[in-house]
Amino acid sequence: ELLLRAAYHDTIIVDEKTNLFNGRIWRPIHAVAGTDCPSSMVEFVIHLFPDQAGNIDELGNTPLHVGASRPETACAETMKHLFQSCPASGLVQNQDGCTPLHLACLHGAPLDVLKLLLDSCPDAALVQNNAGQSPLFVSIAIGSSLDVLQEILKIRPASVHIRDEMGTSTITLAWTMLLSGLQTLLSSQGNVEETGLGRANILSMSIASVSDSLSTTVKMWMAKIHLLLRTSFHGTSAKSLPHGRHFREVHAAAAAGICPPDVLAFALQLMPAEESVKNEDGNLPLHLVASAPPHLHLTSPQMGDGAVSIDLLLSLNDADAAKRFDRRGRLPLHLALASSKTWHRVGVKSLVESFPESVQMRDPETGLMPFMLAGASSNKTLQKEEDQKIAPDLESHSEIAEASSLDTIYNLLRGTPRLIRQGMYQKNKNDNDNEDNNSSSGQNTHLNGAEMQYLWRVRSSLLNETMSLKQKVEELEAEILRRMTKAEIKTIEDKKVQDAATKREKECDTRADRFGIYANEMVQTISKIAERINKFEGHR
Protein backbone atom coordinates (compact mmCIF):
# COMPACT_ATOMS: atom_id res chain seq x y z
CA GLU A 1 0.00 0.00 0.00
CA LEU A 2 2.88 2.36 0.78
CA LEU A 3 4.38 1.80 -2.67
CA LEU A 4 1.02 2.30 -4.35
CA ARG A 5 0.47 5.61 -2.56
CA ALA A 6 3.91 6.83 -3.55
CA ALA A 7 3.41 5.75 -7.17
CA TYR A 8 -0.14 7.05 -7.62
CA HIS A 9 -0.14 10.22 -5.47
CA ASP A 10 3.59 11.03 -5.72
CA THR A 11 3.69 11.18 -1.91
CA ILE A 12 3.19 9.05 1.18
CA ILE A 13 2.49 12.04 3.39
CA VAL A 14 -1.10 12.59 4.38
CA ASP A 15 -2.44 16.05 5.27
CA GLU A 16 -3.44 15.82 8.94
CA LYS A 17 -6.23 18.40 8.56
CA THR A 18 -7.89 17.01 5.42
CA ASN A 19 -6.61 13.44 5.49
CA LEU A 20 -5.79 13.82 1.77
CA PHE A 21 -2.77 12.90 -0.34
CA ASN A 22 -1.90 15.91 -2.51
CA GLY A 23 -5.51 17.00 -2.18
CA ARG A 24 -6.89 13.59 -3.16
CA ILE A 25 -8.58 10.76 -1.27
CA TRP A 26 -6.83 7.41 -1.12
CA ARG A 27 -8.66 4.94 -3.38
CA PRO A 28 -6.95 1.53 -3.70
CA ILE A 29 -8.62 0.44 -6.96
CA HIS A 30 -7.86 3.76 -8.65
CA ALA A 31 -4.26 3.35 -7.51
CA VAL A 32 -3.75 -0.12 -8.98
CA ALA A 33 -5.52 0.98 -12.19
CA GLY A 34 -3.21 3.97 -12.52
CA THR A 35 0.14 2.32 -11.75
CA ASP A 36 2.22 -0.43 -13.26
CA CYS A 37 0.67 -3.36 -11.40
CA PRO A 38 0.24 -6.95 -12.58
CA SER A 39 -3.31 -7.76 -13.67
CA SER A 40 -3.50 -10.42 -10.95
CA MET A 41 -2.81 -7.72 -8.34
CA VAL A 42 -5.57 -5.56 -9.82
CA GLU A 43 -7.95 -8.49 -9.59
CA PHE A 44 -6.92 -9.09 -5.95
CA VAL A 45 -7.45 -5.46 -4.89
CA ILE A 46 -10.87 -5.42 -6.57
CA HIS A 47 -11.72 -8.55 -4.60
CA LEU A 48 -10.70 -6.80 -1.34
CA PHE A 49 -12.69 -3.60 -2.05
CA PRO A 50 -15.60 -4.59 -4.34
CA ASP A 51 -17.77 -1.70 -3.14
CA GLN A 52 -15.24 0.84 -4.49
CA ALA A 53 -15.17 -0.46 -8.07
CA GLY A 54 -17.61 2.18 -9.29
CA ASN A 55 -16.42 5.10 -7.18
CA ILE A 56 -15.36 8.34 -8.83
CA ASP A 57 -12.40 10.52 -7.86
CA GLU A 58 -12.04 14.30 -7.70
CA LEU A 59 -12.00 14.53 -11.52
CA GLY A 60 -15.05 12.32 -11.94
CA ASN A 61 -12.98 9.32 -13.03
CA THR A 62 -13.85 5.72 -12.21
CA PRO A 63 -11.03 3.14 -11.99
CA LEU A 64 -11.88 2.23 -15.59
CA HIS A 65 -11.23 5.86 -16.63
CA VAL A 66 -7.88 5.78 -14.84
CA GLY A 67 -6.83 2.56 -16.57
CA ALA A 68 -7.97 3.85 -19.96
CA SER A 69 -5.88 7.02 -19.56
CA ARG A 70 -2.72 5.02 -18.83
CA PRO A 71 -2.30 2.60 -21.73
CA GLU A 72 1.41 2.31 -20.98
CA THR A 73 0.58 0.41 -17.77
CA ALA A 74 -3.00 -0.90 -18.04
CA CYS A 75 -3.09 -3.93 -20.34
CA ALA A 76 -6.22 -5.51 -21.81
CA GLU A 77 -6.40 -8.06 -18.97
CA THR A 78 -6.30 -5.27 -16.37
CA MET A 79 -9.01 -3.36 -18.23
CA LYS A 80 -11.12 -6.50 -18.35
CA HIS A 81 -10.97 -6.87 -14.55
CA LEU A 82 -11.84 -3.19 -14.08
CA PHE A 83 -14.82 -3.38 -16.42
CA GLN A 84 -16.19 -6.61 -14.99
CA SER A 85 -16.02 -5.16 -11.48
CA CYS A 86 -18.42 -2.36 -12.56
CA PRO A 87 -19.87 -2.70 -16.10
CA ALA A 88 -21.86 0.54 -15.68
CA SER A 89 -18.63 2.56 -15.58
CA GLY A 90 -18.27 2.11 -19.35
CA LEU A 91 -20.79 4.91 -19.88
CA VAL A 92 -19.82 7.14 -16.94
CA GLN A 93 -18.62 10.62 -18.00
CA ASN A 94 -16.01 12.47 -15.96
CA GLN A 95 -15.90 16.25 -15.40
CA ASP A 96 -14.78 16.73 -19.02
CA GLY A 97 -17.67 14.59 -20.26
CA CYS A 98 -15.26 11.84 -21.31
CA THR A 99 -16.07 8.15 -21.02
CA PRO A 100 -13.31 5.54 -20.59
CA LEU A 101 -13.48 5.01 -24.37
CA HIS A 102 -12.78 8.73 -24.96
CA LEU A 103 -9.71 8.50 -22.73
CA ALA A 104 -8.49 5.29 -24.33
CA CYS A 105 -8.73 6.95 -27.76
CA LEU A 106 -7.17 10.18 -26.49
CA HIS A 107 -4.14 8.44 -24.98
CA GLY A 108 -3.59 6.04 -27.87
CA ALA A 109 -4.55 2.80 -26.12
CA PRO A 110 -3.61 -0.45 -27.91
CA LEU A 111 -6.13 -1.93 -30.31
CA ASP A 112 -6.96 -4.86 -27.99
CA VAL A 113 -7.94 -2.43 -25.21
CA LEU A 114 -10.15 -0.44 -27.60
CA LYS A 115 -11.79 -3.65 -28.82
CA LEU A 116 -12.50 -4.66 -25.23
CA LEU A 117 -14.17 -1.33 -24.42
CA LEU A 118 -16.11 -1.25 -27.70
CA ASP A 119 -17.34 -4.84 -27.41
CA SER A 120 -18.24 -4.41 -23.74
CA CYS A 121 -19.97 -1.04 -24.09
CA PRO A 122 -20.67 -0.24 -27.78
CA ASP A 123 -22.93 2.75 -27.06
CA ALA A 124 -19.95 4.62 -25.61
CA ALA A 125 -18.89 5.24 -29.21
CA LEU A 126 -21.86 7.62 -29.59
CA VAL A 127 -21.27 9.65 -26.41
CA GLN A 128 -20.00 13.23 -26.77
CA ASN A 129 -17.73 14.96 -24.26
CA ASN A 130 -18.08 18.57 -23.11
CA ALA A 131 -16.63 19.76 -26.43
CA GLY A 132 -19.14 17.68 -28.39
CA GLN A 133 -16.42 15.26 -29.49
CA SER A 134 -17.12 11.57 -30.00
CA PRO A 135 -14.40 8.90 -29.45
CA LEU A 136 -14.08 8.70 -33.26
CA PHE A 137 -13.52 12.47 -33.46
CA VAL A 138 -10.86 12.25 -30.73
CA SER A 139 -9.13 9.37 -32.52
CA ILE A 140 -8.88 11.40 -35.74
CA ALA A 141 -7.61 14.43 -33.82
CA ILE A 142 -4.68 12.55 -32.26
CA GLY A 143 -3.80 10.85 -35.57
CA SER A 144 -4.84 7.28 -34.70
CA SER A 145 -4.30 4.53 -37.23
CA LEU A 146 -6.84 3.41 -39.81
CA ASP A 147 -7.38 0.20 -37.80
CA VAL A 148 -8.60 2.21 -34.79
CA LEU A 149 -11.13 4.13 -36.91
CA GLN A 150 -12.32 0.87 -38.47
CA GLU A 151 -12.94 -0.71 -35.07
CA ILE A 152 -15.06 2.22 -33.88
CA LEU A 153 -17.04 2.45 -37.13
CA LYS A 154 -17.58 -1.30 -37.25
CA ILE A 155 -19.31 -1.17 -33.85
CA ARG A 156 -21.23 2.11 -34.32
CA PRO A 157 -21.24 3.41 -37.95
CA ALA A 158 -23.51 6.30 -36.92
CA SER A 159 -20.61 7.90 -35.03
CA VAL A 160 -19.30 9.23 -38.36
CA HIS A 161 -22.15 11.78 -38.40
CA ILE A 162 -21.47 13.27 -34.94
CA ARG A 163 -20.17 16.86 -35.05
CA ASP A 164 -18.41 18.70 -32.26
CA GLU A 165 -19.71 21.83 -30.51
CA MET A 166 -18.48 24.06 -33.37
CA GLY A 167 -20.20 21.97 -36.04
CA THR A 168 -16.97 20.35 -37.25
CA SER A 169 -17.57 16.92 -38.75
CA THR A 170 -15.19 13.98 -38.65
CA ILE A 171 -14.46 14.31 -42.38
CA THR A 172 -13.85 18.06 -42.06
CA LEU A 173 -11.38 17.42 -39.24
CA ALA A 174 -9.46 14.77 -41.22
CA TRP A 175 -9.41 16.93 -44.37
CA THR A 176 -8.17 19.99 -42.47
CA MET A 177 -5.40 18.06 -40.73
CA LEU A 178 -4.32 16.69 -44.13
CA LEU A 179 -4.08 20.17 -45.68
CA SER A 180 -2.39 21.60 -42.59
CA GLY A 181 0.20 18.82 -42.47
CA LEU A 182 -0.71 17.92 -38.88
CA GLN A 183 -0.16 14.34 -37.76
CA THR A 184 -1.77 14.94 -34.37
CA LEU A 185 -3.30 17.81 -32.41
CA LEU A 186 -1.81 16.66 -29.07
CA SER A 187 1.44 18.55 -29.58
CA SER A 188 -0.16 21.65 -31.09
CA GLN A 189 -1.21 23.25 -27.79
CA GLY A 190 -3.80 25.26 -29.69
CA ASN A 191 -1.19 26.96 -31.94
CA VAL A 192 -1.86 25.55 -35.39
CA GLU A 193 -0.19 26.98 -38.46
CA GLU A 194 0.39 25.67 -41.93
CA THR A 195 3.54 23.52 -41.84
CA GLY A 196 6.05 22.52 -44.47
CA LEU A 197 4.39 19.11 -44.59
CA GLY A 198 1.06 20.82 -45.21
CA ARG A 199 2.49 22.65 -48.22
CA ALA A 200 3.98 19.39 -49.49
CA ASN A 201 0.59 17.67 -49.11
CA ILE A 202 -1.16 20.48 -51.00
CA LEU A 203 1.39 20.30 -53.83
CA SER A 204 0.97 16.52 -54.11
CA MET A 205 -2.82 16.85 -54.23
CA SER A 206 -2.90 19.76 -56.68
CA ILE A 207 -0.92 17.94 -59.40
CA ALA A 208 -2.40 14.44 -58.90
CA SER A 209 -4.57 12.90 -61.61
CA VAL A 210 -4.71 9.40 -60.10
CA SER A 211 -4.51 8.23 -56.48
CA ASP A 212 -1.29 6.27 -57.08
CA SER A 213 0.59 9.52 -57.71
CA LEU A 214 -0.17 10.89 -54.23
CA SER A 215 2.51 11.08 -51.56
CA THR A 216 2.59 8.53 -48.72
CA THR A 217 1.23 10.98 -46.13
CA VAL A 218 -1.63 12.07 -48.38
CA LYS A 219 -2.48 8.43 -49.12
CA MET A 220 -2.64 7.71 -45.38
CA TRP A 221 -5.11 10.54 -44.72
CA MET A 222 -7.11 9.83 -47.87
CA ALA A 223 -7.52 6.19 -46.72
CA LYS A 224 -9.10 7.54 -43.51
CA ILE A 225 -11.34 9.96 -45.42
CA HIS A 226 -12.28 7.16 -47.82
CA LEU A 227 -13.37 5.03 -44.82
CA LEU A 228 -15.38 7.90 -43.32
CA LEU A 229 -17.11 8.60 -46.66
CA ARG A 230 -17.93 4.92 -47.21
CA THR A 231 -19.43 4.60 -43.75
CA SER A 232 -21.34 7.86 -44.05
CA PHE A 233 -22.87 6.96 -47.42
CA HIS A 234 -23.49 3.23 -47.05
CA GLY A 235 -23.94 2.98 -43.29
CA THR A 236 -21.19 0.38 -42.99
CA SER A 237 -17.41 0.32 -42.93
CA ALA A 238 -17.27 -3.16 -44.49
CA LYS A 239 -15.29 -3.43 -47.71
CA SER A 240 -17.90 -5.73 -49.26
CA LEU A 241 -21.14 -3.79 -49.67
CA PRO A 242 -24.57 -5.49 -49.58
CA HIS A 243 -26.86 -6.07 -52.58
CA GLY A 244 -24.06 -5.79 -55.12
CA ARG A 245 -23.52 -2.08 -54.52
CA HIS A 246 -20.32 -0.30 -55.51
CA PHE A 247 -18.60 2.44 -53.56
CA ARG A 248 -18.20 5.61 -55.59
CA GLU A 249 -16.14 8.32 -53.92
CA VAL A 250 -17.76 11.18 -55.86
CA HIS A 251 -21.29 10.08 -54.97
CA ALA A 252 -20.35 9.63 -51.31
CA ALA A 253 -18.71 13.07 -51.11
CA ALA A 254 -21.76 14.61 -52.80
CA ALA A 255 -24.25 12.99 -50.45
CA ALA A 256 -22.34 13.11 -47.18
CA GLY A 257 -23.49 16.56 -46.11
CA ILE A 258 -20.65 16.49 -43.57
CA CYS A 259 -17.63 17.26 -45.72
CA PRO A 260 -16.19 20.41 -47.32
CA PRO A 261 -16.86 21.01 -51.04
CA ASP A 262 -13.13 20.62 -51.66
CA VAL A 263 -13.41 16.92 -50.79
CA LEU A 264 -15.92 16.56 -53.62
CA ALA A 265 -13.70 18.62 -55.92
CA PHE A 266 -10.70 16.41 -55.15
CA ALA A 267 -12.74 13.23 -55.73
CA LEU A 268 -13.80 14.62 -59.12
CA GLN A 269 -10.18 15.50 -59.88
CA LEU A 270 -9.17 11.85 -59.45
CA MET A 271 -12.35 10.27 -60.83
CA PRO A 272 -13.99 12.73 -63.27
CA ALA A 273 -15.99 10.02 -65.05
CA GLU A 274 -18.13 9.40 -61.92
CA GLU A 275 -19.78 12.81 -62.35
CA SER A 276 -22.07 11.49 -65.09
CA VAL A 277 -22.64 8.01 -63.61
CA LYS A 278 -25.89 7.03 -61.91
CA ASN A 279 -25.57 4.78 -58.87
CA GLU A 280 -27.71 1.75 -58.02
CA ASP A 281 -30.52 4.05 -56.86
CA GLY A 282 -30.54 5.93 -60.16
CA ASN A 283 -28.94 9.08 -58.73
CA LEU A 284 -26.28 11.30 -60.23
CA PRO A 285 -23.92 13.14 -57.83
CA LEU A 286 -26.00 16.29 -58.48
CA HIS A 287 -29.15 14.51 -57.30
CA LEU A 288 -27.35 13.53 -54.10
CA VAL A 289 -25.98 17.04 -53.46
CA ALA A 290 -29.44 18.49 -54.03
CA SER A 291 -31.03 15.94 -51.67
CA ALA A 292 -28.51 16.40 -48.85
CA PRO A 293 -29.95 18.32 -45.89
CA PRO A 294 -28.65 21.87 -45.50
CA HIS A 295 -25.98 22.47 -42.89
CA LEU A 296 -26.97 23.84 -39.51
CA HIS A 297 -26.60 27.59 -39.31
CA LEU A 298 -23.85 27.26 -36.69
CA THR A 299 -21.63 25.63 -39.30
CA SER A 300 -19.33 28.09 -41.04
CA PRO A 301 -19.35 28.14 -44.88
CA GLN A 302 -15.86 26.65 -45.22
CA MET A 303 -17.04 23.52 -43.40
CA GLY A 304 -19.42 22.74 -46.23
CA ASP A 305 -21.69 24.73 -48.51
CA GLY A 306 -24.32 23.12 -50.71
CA ALA A 307 -24.21 25.95 -53.26
CA VAL A 308 -20.49 25.46 -53.87
CA SER A 309 -20.94 21.73 -54.48
CA ILE A 310 -23.92 22.28 -56.77
CA ASP A 311 -22.05 24.94 -58.78
CA LEU A 312 -19.04 22.65 -59.07
CA LEU A 313 -21.06 19.76 -60.52
CA LEU A 314 -22.99 22.02 -62.89
CA SER A 315 -19.78 23.57 -64.23
CA LEU A 316 -18.37 20.18 -65.18
CA ASN A 317 -21.27 19.05 -67.33
CA ASP A 318 -22.43 22.26 -69.03
CA ALA A 319 -25.45 22.24 -66.72
CA ASP A 320 -26.97 19.18 -68.43
CA ALA A 321 -27.21 17.36 -65.10
CA ALA A 322 -29.82 19.92 -63.94
CA LYS A 323 -32.15 18.56 -66.66
CA ARG A 324 -31.84 14.90 -65.74
CA PHE A 325 -34.47 13.10 -63.68
CA ASP A 326 -33.84 10.60 -60.93
CA ARG A 327 -35.61 7.24 -60.79
CA ARG A 328 -38.74 8.85 -59.30
CA GLY A 329 -38.91 11.47 -62.06
CA ARG A 330 -37.68 14.32 -59.86
CA LEU A 331 -35.32 17.03 -61.06
CA PRO A 332 -32.39 18.29 -58.96
CA LEU A 333 -34.44 21.46 -58.35
CA HIS A 334 -37.28 19.43 -56.81
CA LEU A 335 -34.83 17.57 -54.59
CA ALA A 336 -33.09 20.77 -53.48
CA LEU A 337 -36.36 22.48 -52.55
CA ALA A 338 -37.68 19.37 -50.78
CA SER A 339 -34.53 19.38 -48.61
CA SER A 340 -35.14 23.04 -47.65
CA LYS A 341 -32.39 24.59 -49.73
CA THR A 342 -32.78 28.29 -50.50
CA TRP A 343 -32.19 30.64 -53.44
CA HIS A 344 -28.86 32.32 -52.69
CA ARG A 345 -27.01 30.29 -50.04
CA VAL A 346 -27.62 26.70 -51.01
CA GLY A 347 -27.69 26.41 -54.79
CA VAL A 348 -31.33 26.79 -55.92
CA LYS A 349 -30.43 29.85 -58.01
CA SER A 350 -27.74 27.90 -59.91
CA LEU A 351 -30.13 25.04 -60.65
CA VAL A 352 -32.77 27.41 -62.03
CA GLU A 353 -30.24 29.31 -64.15
CA SER A 354 -29.01 26.01 -65.61
CA PHE A 355 -32.53 24.86 -66.47
CA PRO A 356 -35.00 27.81 -66.37
CA GLU A 357 -37.92 25.65 -67.56
CA SER A 358 -37.71 23.62 -64.34
CA VAL A 359 -39.56 26.33 -62.38
CA GLN A 360 -42.68 25.43 -64.41
CA MET A 361 -42.41 21.67 -63.87
CA ARG A 362 -44.36 19.99 -61.07
CA ASP A 363 -42.67 17.70 -58.62
CA PRO A 364 -44.11 14.25 -59.52
CA GLU A 365 -43.85 13.00 -55.96
CA THR A 366 -45.81 15.78 -54.24
CA GLY A 367 -47.67 17.26 -57.22
CA LEU A 368 -46.49 20.73 -56.15
CA MET A 369 -45.01 23.44 -58.33
CA PRO A 370 -41.46 24.47 -57.28
CA PHE A 371 -42.58 27.67 -55.54
CA MET A 372 -45.18 25.64 -53.58
CA LEU A 373 -42.56 23.04 -52.70
CA ALA A 374 -40.28 25.79 -51.36
CA GLY A 375 -43.03 27.08 -49.10
CA ALA A 376 -43.98 23.64 -47.79
CA SER A 377 -40.37 22.63 -47.09
CA SER A 378 -39.48 25.87 -45.32
CA ASN A 379 -42.44 25.50 -42.94
CA LYS A 380 -41.24 22.01 -41.97
CA THR A 381 -37.70 23.24 -41.36
CA LEU A 382 -38.77 26.15 -39.17
CA GLN A 383 -41.03 23.89 -37.12
CA LYS A 384 -38.25 21.30 -36.71
CA GLU A 385 -35.75 23.91 -35.53
CA GLU A 386 -38.27 25.34 -33.08
CA ASP A 387 -39.01 21.88 -31.67
CA GLN A 388 -35.33 20.96 -31.32
CA LYS A 389 -34.17 24.38 -30.02
CA ILE A 390 -31.16 24.25 -32.33
CA ALA A 391 -29.75 27.64 -31.37
CA PRO A 392 -29.82 29.96 -28.38
CA ASP A 393 -30.71 32.84 -30.72
CA LEU A 394 -33.55 30.81 -32.19
CA GLU A 395 -35.86 33.77 -32.73
CA SER A 396 -33.39 35.75 -34.88
CA HIS A 397 -32.35 32.61 -36.76
CA SER A 398 -35.98 31.76 -37.52
CA GLU A 399 -36.51 35.26 -38.90
CA ILE A 400 -33.48 34.87 -41.20
CA ALA A 401 -34.67 31.43 -42.34
CA GLU A 402 -38.16 32.79 -43.02
CA ALA A 403 -36.74 35.69 -45.06
CA SER A 404 -34.61 33.24 -47.09
CA SER A 405 -37.68 31.13 -47.72
CA LEU A 406 -39.73 34.10 -48.91
CA ASP A 407 -36.86 35.19 -51.16
CA THR A 408 -36.76 31.68 -52.68
CA ILE A 409 -40.51 31.61 -53.30
CA TYR A 410 -40.44 35.09 -54.84
CA ASN A 411 -37.63 34.24 -57.26
CA LEU A 412 -39.29 30.99 -58.28
CA LEU A 413 -42.55 32.82 -58.96
CA ARG A 414 -40.71 35.36 -61.13
CA GLY A 415 -39.85 32.48 -63.45
CA THR A 416 -43.49 31.45 -63.84
CA PRO A 417 -45.36 34.55 -65.12
CA ARG A 418 -47.85 32.29 -66.91
CA LEU A 419 -49.00 30.85 -63.58
CA ILE A 420 -49.35 34.31 -62.08
CA ARG A 421 -51.35 35.60 -65.07
CA GLN A 422 -53.49 32.49 -65.02
CA GLY A 423 -54.15 32.94 -61.30
CA MET A 424 -55.13 36.62 -61.72
CA TYR A 425 -57.31 35.82 -64.71
CA GLN A 426 -59.03 33.01 -62.85
CA LYS A 427 -59.73 35.31 -59.88
CA ASN A 428 -61.41 37.89 -62.14
CA LYS A 429 -63.52 35.21 -63.76
CA ASN A 430 -64.62 33.97 -60.35
CA ASP A 431 -65.82 37.45 -59.55
CA ASN A 432 -67.84 37.78 -62.76
CA ASP A 433 -68.72 34.33 -64.13
CA ASN A 434 -70.07 31.05 -62.85
CA GLU A 435 -67.99 28.00 -61.92
CA ASP A 436 -68.52 26.18 -65.26
CA ASN A 437 -67.19 29.10 -67.27
CA ASN A 438 -64.17 29.29 -64.96
CA SER A 439 -63.42 25.62 -65.54
CA SER A 440 -63.54 25.92 -69.33
CA SER A 441 -61.41 29.08 -69.38
CA GLY A 442 -58.82 27.33 -67.19
CA GLN A 443 -58.61 24.48 -69.68
CA ASN A 444 -57.83 26.90 -72.50
CA THR A 445 -54.49 27.76 -70.89
CA HIS A 446 -53.11 24.26 -71.53
CA LEU A 447 -51.66 22.99 -74.79
CA ASN A 448 -53.97 20.83 -76.89
CA GLY A 449 -52.89 17.64 -78.68
CA ALA A 450 -52.13 19.30 -82.03
CA GLU A 451 -49.96 21.98 -80.42
CA MET A 452 -48.02 19.38 -78.45
CA GLN A 453 -47.37 17.28 -81.57
CA TYR A 454 -46.17 20.39 -83.43
CA LEU A 455 -43.72 21.28 -80.64
CA TRP A 456 -42.30 17.74 -80.62
CA ARG A 457 -41.83 17.87 -84.43
CA VAL A 458 -40.00 21.19 -84.12
CA ARG A 459 -37.78 19.77 -81.38
CA SER A 460 -36.96 16.68 -83.46
CA SER A 461 -36.16 18.85 -86.48
CA LEU A 462 -33.80 21.06 -84.47
CA LEU A 463 -31.98 18.04 -83.04
CA ASN A 464 -31.51 16.58 -86.53
CA GLU A 465 -30.22 19.92 -87.79
CA THR A 466 -27.73 20.12 -84.91
CA MET A 467 -26.40 16.64 -85.67
CA SER A 468 -26.08 17.52 -89.35
CA LEU A 469 -24.09 20.68 -88.56
CA LYS A 470 -21.74 18.74 -86.27
CA GLN A 471 -21.13 16.21 -89.04
CA LYS A 472 -20.35 18.99 -91.54
CA VAL A 473 -17.87 20.57 -89.12
CA GLU A 474 -16.08 17.22 -88.69
CA GLU A 475 -15.91 16.75 -92.50
CA LEU A 476 -14.47 20.24 -92.99
CA GLU A 477 -11.85 19.68 -90.27
CA ALA A 478 -10.83 16.38 -91.93
CA GLU A 479 -10.54 18.12 -95.31
CA ILE A 480 -8.34 20.86 -93.83
CA LEU A 481 -6.01 18.26 -92.35
CA ARG A 482 -5.68 16.48 -95.70
CA ARG A 483 -4.56 19.73 -97.35
CA MET A 484 -2.01 20.66 -94.70
CA THR A 485 1.69 19.74 -94.86
CA LYS A 486 3.32 17.55 -92.20
CA ALA A 487 5.16 20.56 -90.80
CA GLU A 488 1.93 22.51 -90.41
CA ILE A 489 0.22 19.56 -88.72
CA LYS A 490 3.17 19.16 -86.32
CA THR A 491 3.08 22.86 -85.46
CA ILE A 492 -0.62 22.64 -84.62
CA GLU A 493 -0.12 19.48 -82.53
CA ASP A 494 2.78 21.07 -80.65
CA LYS A 495 0.61 24.11 -79.96
CA LYS A 496 -2.17 21.88 -78.63
CA VAL A 497 0.28 20.08 -76.31
CA GLN A 498 1.67 23.41 -75.10
CA ASP A 499 -1.82 24.84 -74.50
CA ALA A 500 -2.84 21.68 -72.63
CA ALA A 501 0.27 21.90 -70.43
CA THR A 502 -0.38 25.57 -69.70
CA LYS A 503 -4.01 24.87 -68.87
CA ARG A 504 -3.03 22.01 -66.55
CA GLU A 505 -0.44 24.19 -64.81
CA LYS A 506 -3.06 26.88 -64.18
CA GLU A 507 -5.50 24.27 -62.87
CA CYS A 508 -2.86 22.93 -60.48
CA ASP A 509 -2.07 26.45 -59.24
CA THR A 510 -5.77 27.14 -58.73
CA ARG A 511 -6.21 23.92 -56.74
CA ALA A 512 -3.17 24.65 -54.59
CA ASP A 513 -4.45 28.18 -53.87
CA ARG A 514 -7.90 26.84 -52.99
CA PHE A 515 -6.50 24.17 -50.65
CA GLY A 516 -4.22 26.73 -49.00
CA ILE A 517 -7.05 29.23 -48.49
CA TYR A 518 -9.20 26.53 -46.88
CA ALA A 519 -6.40 25.47 -44.53
CA ASN A 520 -5.84 29.11 -43.47
CA GLU A 521 -9.55 29.68 -42.93
CA MET A 522 -9.73 26.65 -40.66
CA VAL A 523 -6.72 27.60 -38.49
CA GLN A 524 -8.87 29.17 -35.79
CA THR A 525 -11.29 26.25 -35.69
CA ILE A 526 -8.59 23.58 -35.61
CA SER A 527 -6.71 25.57 -32.94
CA LYS A 528 -9.76 25.51 -30.67
CA ILE A 529 -10.11 21.76 -31.19
CA ALA A 530 -6.42 21.28 -30.37
CA GLU A 531 -6.79 23.40 -27.24
CA ARG A 532 -9.68 21.28 -25.96
CA ILE A 533 -7.94 18.01 -26.84
CA ASN A 534 -4.79 19.01 -24.95
CA LYS A 535 -6.85 20.19 -21.98
CA PHE A 536 -8.58 16.81 -21.74
CA GLU A 537 -5.28 14.99 -22.18
CA GLY A 538 -3.81 16.83 -19.20
CA HIS A 539 -6.63 15.79 -16.83
CA ARG A 540 -5.46 12.46 -15.50
Question: In words, what does this structure look like?
Answer:
The structure is a single chain. With 540 residues, the chain is mainly alpha-helical. 59% of the residues lie in helices and 0% in strands. It has 25 helices and no strands. The radius of gyration is 31 Å and the shape is elongated. The two termini are 21 Å apart.
SSE blueprint and pairings:
Blueprint: H1 2-9, H2 28-33, H3 39-48, H4 63-68, H5 76-85, H6 100-106, H7 111-120, H8 135-141, H9 146-155, H10 170-180, H11 196-207, H12 216-234, H13 249-255, H14 261-270, H15 285-291, H16 306-316, H17 332-338, H18 348-354, H19 370-388, H20 394-414, H21 417-432, H22 435-443, H23 449-483, H24 486-521, H25 523-538
| Assembly context of the chains | single chain
Task: Please identify the structural class as seen in this structure.
Answer: mainly alpha
Order of helices and strands: HHHHHHHHHHHHHHHHHHHHHHHHH
Principal-axis shape equals elongated
Our Rg estimate from Cα atoms comes to: 31 Å
Question: What separation lies between the terminal Cα atoms?
Answer: 21 Å
Which band does the percent of strand residues land in? under 5%
Helical residues, percent:
55-70%
How would a crystallographer describe the biggest sheet?
none
Instruction: Tell me, rounded to a whole number, the average pLDDT.
Output: 83
Low-confidence stretches: 296-305, 382-395, 434-446
Beta strands, count: 0
Number of helices: 25
